[in-house]
Structures are given as structure tokens and as C-alpha cells.
Amino acid sequence: xxxxxxxxxxxxxxxxxxxxxxxxxxxxxxxxxxxxxxxxxxxxxxxxxxxxxxxxxxxxxxxxxxxxxxxxxxxxxxxxxxxxxxxxxxxxxxxxxxxxxxxxxxxxxxxxxxxxxxxxxxxxxxxxxxxxxxxxxxxxxxxxxxxxxxxxxxxxxxxxxxxxxxxxxxxxxxxxxxxxxxxxxxxxxxxxxxxxxxxxxxxxxxxxxxxxxxxxxxxxxxxxxxxxxxxxxxxxxxxxxxxxxxxxxxxxxxxxxxxxxxxxxxxxxxxxxxxxxxxxxxxxxxxxxxxxxxxxxxxxxxxxxxxxxxxxxxxxxxxxxxxxxxxxxxxxxxxxxxxxxxxxxxxxxxxxxxxxxxxxxxxxxxxxxxxxxxxxxxxxxxxxxxxxxxxxxxxxxxxxxxxxxxxxxxxxxxxxxxxxxxxxxxxxxxxxxxxxxxxxxxxxxxxxxxxxxx
Length: 454
Description:
Family: Belongs to the TrpB family.
Keywords: Amino-acid biosynthesis, Aromatic amino acid biosynthesis, Lyase, Pyridoxal phosphate, Tryptophan biosynthesis
CATH architecture of the largest domain: 3-Layer(aba) Sandwich
Distance between the termini: 56 Å
Radius of gyration: 20 Å
Number of strands: 15
GO molecular function, one term: pyridoxal phosphate binding
Shape: globular
CATH topology of the largest domain: Rossmann fold
Function: The beta subunit is responsible for the synthesis of L-tryptophan from indole and L-serine.
Structural class: alpha/beta
């Protein structure tokens, strides 16, 4: 159909394996290091935090890793997710570009995050774990892990960044409805949290701080493990199911992306949509331009340093080489809570260093303007995080209009904004402001990067 809007796959067409880009990288990813010895870490170093199957996937260089049938059976509730042709948005922009978006807001938690929370809960349950701890920013990951915990009979404890805990009470309510315990971070319940509160009782919190609290809690109990919603290799691996589906759906449309746009905070949804296409390119397939979009108030890829750093503020995690603003950097409290992280996924950082992707940063107000424009054209109001991808895609489409080029644009609409309506209320009332980070705070955080031998 020449005017087709949505492209749907059957449950039988859902991918049965994840794609691992580590198999196709022209230069291997720098290994994680033990902060004490400076040497590459081994599985035993990660065993107190993660189950062994997750550790195996974290270090794997196999191109394909099977998705367990039990996981695929749960995925069938919302996967395969739809691919849409944004025809009304194209018309509103007056662009010759063809715009497609993969829509992950159809999951029970309203975002792409269950694509990894379900397998992580499955692997933990299989190894006899009783409780999972985690962090969350905007709450999409926390609610997704809470959902997975409910399905597998696991207790879930979520440390939610304080500014988002206050801004997004309905995300907190969803976690609690699924049976999870939600704690504002920094909290008085951990040494990491108490240390932050002692120096700054009014701390807005950060994902780095919340990670420290969750990891600290996990290592204290043998029946408890930690689950992460972004950044690490196994998380990006799990998200590639959405890019694999998009490849099949674009084949149905008789099209292929010239440009892929994704929002980046930790890198999971970006890797999920982009890595399968990048892998095809690296194996000699069609070329594609890939653009990562991030908030200007937390500009990890565009302003950060590529260096070994801790993934958390309390320095309880291994050192990974990534684009970082410094583990002690606390971004201002803008509404895209899921993008308020000081570091970027090592895989995403690595491919930018190799020149395989480019990155852009946008301010808060312009992303909300893009989200409202998209919502009025397409009927879906995006999450504040997803607004960054929308803004990036709109800008590329307007560049096509200016240049008279009919390029094909693909982006991942990684979640809906139904739990973020206060942000849209504030935007409509003119209360939402562009917030800048402190250059002095950034320089102070970068000055504290760990010293690693070359």
C-alpha cells in the first residue's frame, strides 16, 4: 500500500536472538578495569552484583545470542512493537523526507525498558536470586523492573533520583502497584546516601548516586543482585530486538534508513535501534548516518571526556572507558530524568570515537516544542526523553526540505509521556525553563577522574 501508515509483524516473526555488535567492531572495546589493581576484571569480580549468565553476555563477542523461550513468551504481550510512517508529521513539516518511528510505548510499562528487565529478572530467578535492587531516573526503568519482578516473584527495591521522585509521583505509584519498594535517592538508608546528604542535605540526586545506593545494598546480601537499565553491554544487547524488528518492518515498507536518530542518556534505546543497522554497515552492507541526541544540560557525548571512570558516584563499580562528565557531576534537575547520567554506554562512546556516529545536544524547551508538534500531528505525546529523538528527526527532516533531498529517517520513540504530564503542564504555562549545567562543577568533576595507566 503506497499510503500505508503502520507496519506490523506477527508474534511468529519476533526475533529469536539478540544482535551483539561486539562481533563486528573494527577495534575491540577497551575492557573494564578493577579500580584497585587497574587490571581487567574477570567474572568473579562481577559475581556479587550480577548473575553469571548476564556476566557471560556482558563479555561475549558472539554475534547472536539466543533469547530464551520463556522470555519471548512474555515479550509476546507487546512485541513485535509497531513501526509507523509519520505521514502527518511529514506533511506538517512540508518535507520530502520519509520519517519512520519505532514505537516502544506499547509495553506495559510504557517504554522500551522491559526489553531488558524481563531477561534480567529471568536470569536472576534461574540462579536463585530472591531480591533485585536498582536505580531509576524518570522511573521508566524502575517501573519496568518492578513489572518484571512481579512476573517472576522477585522482590524489587528501587532508588529513585530525588528530583524525579518529586516530579513524577505517578511513576512511583506504578512501581508500588507492581509491588516494588521505591526510595528517594540520596537516602539515609545507605552509607553512600548518608555521605551525600551530610555534604548537601538538599541534594536533587543523580543516577550516579542512586546506582551507588543500589549496588551497596546488593553486595550486602547473598540472595540479592543488582539490575541496571542502561549503559552496560548486556543491556544494549537486549534492546537490539527493537532494531531487528525495525529492519524487517522497513523491508515490508520497501525502504531503508539513510539516517537513524536516537536519544541518549545511558545509551540503551539508542543502541537498540542503531546497532543492528550499524552492524549491517560494518559487514559491508548499506551505509547509514547515525545521530545520537542528548540534553544540553547533561552533554556527555558532546562535551564529555573519553576516559576511564566510575559508573557511580560512590565509586563502588568497576572503571569503564566512556564519555563522561565525571562521576561526581550532578546534572541540573531538568525533566528528562532518564537522560541525567554523567556517563555514556562504553559501546556508544567507543563507536563515536571510531567516527561511526555523530552527536547533537538540545535544550529543554526546544525538545518539548518538538514533542508537542509531534503529538499534534501523530497523536502520541512522547516522554521528555524521547522528545530529544523527535527533535533530532525533525531537524534532519527540515534539512532535507532545505536541500530538496528525500532521505529516509528512522527514530525510536522509546516511550510515551502519560506519566510526565506535569512537565507538559509547566511547558504550556511557560514555567519550564532551559537549565544550564555549572561549568565550574563540570571542571571539578572532570579533575577528579581516576588515574589509569596508558
